Amino acid sequence: MADFNFNDGLLHKVFLAGVGALATTVEKSQEIVDDLVKKGEITVEQGKALNAELKHKAEEAKAEETKPASDEKKD
Q: Is 8 inside a domain boundary?
């Protein structure tokens, strides 16, 4: 296999790209839920619950994404 030199700068940029993608996904999901509420396809309470669930899942994914990065630095 090819010998790749992954320095901390590259790993940091990849991590930030992942966080940015996650944030963009959460924002877009919230926009979709808000549109559904406006159209009356779901109730306001259902929209609030769905937004809260999306935020919770995003926080879990972010925490999971940070775990390997911190584990690598310990080694």
A: no
Section 5-18 average pLDDT: 75
The secondary structure of 29-67 as a DSSP string is HHHHHHHHHHHTSS-HHHHHHHHHHHHHHHHHHHHHHHH
Confidence of residue 75 (pLDDT cuts 50, 70, 90): very low
Could you tell me which residues come within 8 angstroms of residue 70 by beta carbon, excluding any fewer than 6 positions away?
none
Provide the residue count of the chain: 75
Instruction: Determine the structural domain holding residue 45 and report its residue range.
Output: 28-62
Torsion sign over Cα 61, 65, 66, 71: positive
Domain tally, the chain: 1
In-domain check, residue 52 = yes
